[in-house]
Queue: 4 jobs
Job 1
Amino acid sequence: EIDYIPSWKNCATEEEVVEHLSGHRERDRIMATTTSGIHRDRFVVSSQGQSFDQSGSTGQLRLASLVLRSAQMAFYEQMAGKKPVILVDDVLLELDHTRRERFLANLNPYSQAFFTFLPEEHYSASLQELKIDPHDPKNSLGFAWQEIVTERLYPHVKIVDIKMHTLVLRADHPSWAQITMMQQKRIIGELQRRYPSLEITTIQVIT
């Protein structure tokens, strides 16, 4: 179920909108932003009476947002008679290869697309095509990384390399690097339990 929640709930006419904006002008000036308007409208997705952003996993939320963007593309083409230009950033990399390929295969037609991704990532290719052995501990670590660091850290901390006995990670912000180091003991313990042959004893986080 999808509910549309406008920020101008009680404004039915242009005059009422003007009156509402005038009444909140001082608040907007203090906050240095417009606190109401179509840019503040929300779409709330719920399932069985519960908000999906509370019950869905990180991957499910990402996939739901991509589905809604696809619907927006179709609506734009229907209304404007033109195919959209799209930017697909690294949110797509948070999906596994199967879901990623399925999404790309069903993506609505577009005029032009820009994709951003990390050098070591692949948008749509099977493990066999990439010649990746899922039984190799280094590759297996990459597949299980989300489980190891938890869904909270996973979008912000990626594996860069394994040098000697050190796992080198890259965080997208110093705060996430700090949180990762605070969990270093737990992460190393999990790595040693799952992949003893890698002999990882320390973690290095770069930003």
Note: The chain has nine helices and eight strands.
Job 2
Amino acid sequence: MAVNSSGCLGPFLTTLFTTVLAPVLVSILTTEVKSHNDRPAAPEPGSAPAQATLAERTEVIAQGVGWTPDEAVQDAVRNALRSASAALVDPSTWTRQGTALFDVLLRNSQGLVLRCQEVRSGTAWHQGRQYHHRTLAVEVARRLLADRLRTAAQAVQ
């Protein structure tokens, strides 16, 4: 019979890693990736100003899958917008109306994505057909997103 020799140290180290070390490492890695590979998203007519303050923008890491590289990128951008939207809406409201709110939001998504940077990409096969996957760091105009969500909420009700 094996004896667990970690005692109280195991849970402490697990907590320390997940609450302190992992977030710091992710922050350092994303900063390093951003400094080497910044690639602005294609500018859209009527888009938000590129120099949004830190409080007006948020960065989301999202994954996307598609049959072409472009489909995978578009899926990742949609997933990033969905994630950023869910963070701004009350959880019970998002559970009840999230799909409808997001559908309305996608009808007018111009200017919401400030920057889009590829973090990882690859291809794989499923049932004899190749598909692409992309992980992106997407910078979203937070204030504009909140305004559009308020407008969407009025349209849904």
Note: Residues 77 and 138 are 7 Å apart (CA to CA).
Job 3
Amino acid sequence: YRRVTKENGAGTKYFIADYYKKTYVKNGLLDYTEDVIGIDYCERVLFDDEEHAKLAGFTLVENKNVSSIPPVTKNGNSTKAKAPPKTKLKPFTKHAGKLIGDGDGDTFTVEVENETFDVRLIGADTPETVGKPGENQYEHGQAAADFIKSELAVATQFEVELNGGTSYDRLLGWVYLNGQELSLTLVEKGYAHPYLYCDDKVACAKKGDYKKFLKTNRVAESLAACEQARKDKLGIWADTSKLSHLDEVPMEYRRRTMDRGAKKARYVIASVSKNVYVPLGLDDYTEETTGIDYCDRVIFLTEKTAKDAGFKRASAPVK
């Protein structure tokens, strides 16, 4: 605004750096909007001297578009991720809607009260379908997608409940089919791992929010359903003549193979039963490395959030 209206200092030129990617762009651009430089307003550091940017550990990127949300690669095609849509829907309230299209097992395009948007299921992480037919991850992901399609085909009631959060170009929420919460059903049937993420922006933004998170995310029910599905050897936990059990949890598969921010993602993994967490900086978040069972975990973004929720720090792997 100052640059457009010629306020004092409006002619200042900056070197804009991406805090997470450790890159920066030169200061000769027409403006410093997200559209021009591709760096999110919430992920930037400004320098007035290029040497200072280099000394701070940032590397020059010639291409002006160095988006902090990398292109999404799917089926060999690369597309630029879009910003999440805005909505007037009240969070934590069920809204009747209808399905417009489905992506992978945990993402849907829906229409609710004349709004159309993508919703990413909260509470369930289905295997990815971006690989090749015959691959373990792909086949389990396809099985989850097929199951969801069969459930949608017979559902007479479709409802969406948002939590106010976003993930890339999607809104976060729960989908209910005939009154049954789909994420919990996916975990019960062995088509997904629980994905109980208490982030510090929405779900656990304030100290004390964890108690609400336990209830709204049905943490106890989800973890119990996971344990039962594994005991009964359903879906991702099963070994059959056609397909062995899921050999890599979706979180680790994304970190290893995908570019949508997954490789740089860092989490604090907590054990619900032991009331402890392992700190940031681990090479991976497998059961072997963390010592925390997949059916016994809640995920935080920061150690502070985990501590505020009442968890104590422990060394990995947890014994």
Note: Confidence is low (pLDDT under 50) at residues 63-81.
Job 4
Amino acid sequence: MRGFSIKILPHHGGLGDEAHPLIVTENDYNHPVISIIMPSYGHARFVGAAVRSVLAQTFTDWELVIVDDCSPDQSLSVLREFDDPRIRLSVNERNLGAYATEQRALEMTRHDLVAVLNSDDLWSPEKLAVQAAALQEHPAASFCFVRGWVVDGDGKVDEADDVHGDWPVGLADYRPWLVVENRILASGVVFRRAGLRFATNAHYSGDWMALLEASNRGPGIGVADRLTQWRIHGSNSFTRSPKQVAEEIAVREAIRARDWPADCRAGLGRNALNLFTLYLQTGQRARALALATQVVRTYPEKAVALRRVLLGFMPQSVLQKRLPWTDSLANLPAAGPFTIN
């Protein structure tokens, strides 16, 4: 393991070069020092910009814990160019995977607020300041997230791709939405550390499960401002693949296995319908049909539920034409099991 010390004054600029007037220090928020965790793997092209977006924060009372997961490229060389005492770098002895690395970084943190920044994403300079203020104002909240933009490998923003949909902002119980899917960007969240964990056997959905568990500890705060950038490119882990689908099925089964508040009923119906469809797509007809009663009973739009359930009784040749991915997902790898606390 290698640590390093750094002595660079933060640049109070944006994702570009414009100065930002908001300067927030520890004393302004009753010492809510923030630990930032950054799992690093194979993002030599992007990781320097990610770290510089931390150095540019107007909120300056943070520590940045970077854990590199045996990157095969020049990521470590890029990271070792930084010199600031708030940054600590560690290297896994062997490749652990994304969320095992994130959990290891979490265990190295020293403060009560924990932000996540993936090594290929970016922050606007006021992001941490806004979230520190929101969490100070709402002490019962277990997490705070900002909205963001999708950008490509060259940093071009895709304003047509709104990953957040119609999700609410402000202080809210996000479980009715999270039991269906996750539309919160991993790099947009600051968690309260108490109870926080990442499933070390997850590869794609660890942030979704961490948010579900955080929502069981208290409400979340959604900030309307788009203060993070999620980079989609050829070498990140967000791809639709048999491994990703297998993990999604395991997460959705973990959601089914738990009791949820009454206002999650419609969301649980949507989760059941999504799971039903995934089982059909992956050739698991018997498991799909075992969900049919729950889908019809709980999905809020009965006609939609009935039409989907009827697909389960169609011949395989017809089913393959109606649902994509059936051939390529016929033999899924193992995933999970997961438990949501």
Note: Residues 265-281 form the longest helix (17 residues).
